[in-house]
Design goal:
The chain is α/β, with parallel strands linked by helices. The chain has 2 domains: 60 residues; 182 residues, Rossmann fold. It contains 10 helices and 7 strands. Helix 5 links the parallel strand 4 and strand 5. The chain is globular. Bound molecules: pyridoxal-5'-phosphate. The site of pyridoxal-5'-phosphate (PLP) has 14 residues, from helix 5.
């Protein structure tokens, strides 16, 4: 099941009560399955309500086209181009390792497809990078399934992380990701929210880039993978940053 999160800022508790507690009809009319409340510890008048929607159900109800990850073919084809870009930018020699912040798996599975296509077209040889799926401690179904030797990844209960792009408790393409990790002799690795934010800070200090926490997670994962011996100083390694930190200023602020 996939969820669509919509955040409504309700400002203060009185407004919150009016909309979400006293006016049951109005709350239900939003069609949301579940509502969670976020409180701003620094400002008691700053209340956010997160409405969670089951988008498969919404699509059925409204006749919408469901474009969740891997439910439609185009996102995979689009993200596949990351594989082409890496090869082109590295002079058609793939790196030894790729660290990718993994949610629904389009990037990982797309790049894996791109490598095969490029080999068929004669752009590259049979060598492949080791693919590392980076996930958050609060939502790491693929890393867990990989460690347990499973071919699918069961639903991760109570998924929580500030890196929203990685909050994917159940991925349709779980088996494809796990296959790519194993075929490439890669692995899965988790990092905590504070580690991801530290990764964002490190990238800002060293590279002048303000990354999303998903990218920061890869910076943090690099340390773990070096310490565990998966990566060596001689390896050529590509870390993917998949977003800008500007979208996450509020999320990251408490840990900054
Ligand atoms: C910022 C960001 N990073 C990473 C991902 C993970 O995507 P995927 O594993 O589908 O490539 C997402 C997904 O929405 C995202 O928004």
């Amino acid at each position: 099941m996939t969820e669509l999160l919509i955040r409504h800022k309700v400002g203060d508790y009185e407004t919150f009560k009016k909309i979400f507690l006293e006016d049951e009809e109005r709350r239900r009319s939003t069609g949301s399955k579940r509502a969670r409340v976020l409180l701003n510890a620094d400002d008691p008048k700053d209340i956010w309500v997160v409405l969670e929607y089951d988008n498969a159900e919404q699509a059925r109800q409204h006749g919408w086209y469901e474009c969740a990850t891997l439910k439609e073919p185009y996102r995979l084809e689009g993200k596949k181009t990351m594989g082409y870009e890496v090869a082109e930018q590295m002079g058609w020699k793939l790196p030894d390792a790729v660290l990718y912040p993994t949610g629904g798996g389009t990037g990982l599975v797309g790049m894996w497809k791109a490598f095969d296509e490029m080999e068929t077209m004669g752009f590259i040889g049979p060598g492949r990078p080791r693919m590392y799926a980076v996930q958050m401690e609060g939502c790491a179904p693929i890393v867990k399934a990989f460690a347990e030797g499973r071919e699918d990844a069961p639903l991760w209960e109570n998924a929580r992380t500030l890196a929203h792009g990685l909050r994917v408790p159940k991925a349709i393409g779980d088996f494809l990701m796990l296959r790519a990790l194993r075929q490439s002799h890669g692995a899965g690795v988790t990092v905590s929210d504070p580690e991801a934010v530290q990764g964002v800070k490190d990238a800002a200090a060293c590279e002048g880039l303000f990354m999303a926490p998903e990218g920061g997670a890869c910076v943090a994962a690099l340390r773990h993978l070096k310490a565990s011996g998966h990566l060596s100083p001689d390896d050529s390694i590509v870390l993917f940053n998949t977003g800008t930190g500007l979208k996450y200023v509020e999320n990251m602020a408490p840990l900054w």
